[in-house]
Amino acid sequence: MNDDEFKNVVTAGSLIAALGLGWLIFGQDATPPPASQVPVATQPAPISEQRKAFTMMNSELTELFAQCDEADAPIDAAMKKSDVYRAYDRAEAAFATCNDTSDKLEKVTVPDIFPEAVRSKLRKSLDDCAAAYTARAQSYDAEKHVLNGDVSPETVEIAKDQKTEANSEAAVCAVGYMRAADAGGFSDIALSEVK
User: Fold this and answer.
1) Each residue of 116-169: pLDDT tens digit?
2) Number of Cβ within a 10 Å radius of residue 56
């Protein structure tokens, strides 16, 4: 027997020994368990159930977003009538509403029914949206200072910067949420409630 034949015999023998050892350690049946015995957490839920869960979550989020998103109209209406007092009151209410929206977004639970990659993207987008609504609240707070009579260039500039930051954060929120929805195959649902 030459060296190459000897190596082949040793390699084959090692393989047989490894298989035998595996048989002894793992038992005679080394096949994976049937799907019914795999823990539920590792099995993705049917897409129909995921879509139903996303629809419910999307409706909840749409209502939360609307609470703050609709805050501009009363301020604008008061300003068109040159009613600074009413505009100030509306800005104060918008500040509280948008802070509340941000707090509620931080508490939204992403259902476990989604695959981990989708859940992770949804959670990240909700964190970004909470930050966006916090920035929106801060912009209303800055606007209140101007409406209260502090029209110094610095205060007006802060109010403008806060509004710009809030708009930028809102874009990050919207794009992140749509990407997360798309990752799960739910963009049609997310877009269905866009007004």
Assistant:
1) 999 999 999 999 999 999 999 999 999 999 999 999 999 999 999 999 999 999
2) 11
Burial zone of 89 (CB within 10 Å; 0-12 exposed, 13-18 middle, 19+ buried): middle
Joined tokens for residue 155? 């205060």
Q: What is the DSSP string of 89-136?
A: HHHHHHHHHHHHHHHHHHHPPPPTTS-HHHHHHHHHHHHHHHHHHHHH
pLDDT tens-digit map of 177-186: 999 999 999 9
Q: How far apart are CA 152 and CA 174, in angstroms?
A: 33
* Cα separation, 105 vs 64, whole angstroms: 8
Q: How far is CA 96 from CA 71, 87, 99, 116, in A?
A: 10, 14, 5, 34
% of the chain beyond a pLDDT of 70: 77
* Cα–Cα distance measured from residue 126 to residue 48, given in angstroms and rounded to the nearest whole number: 23
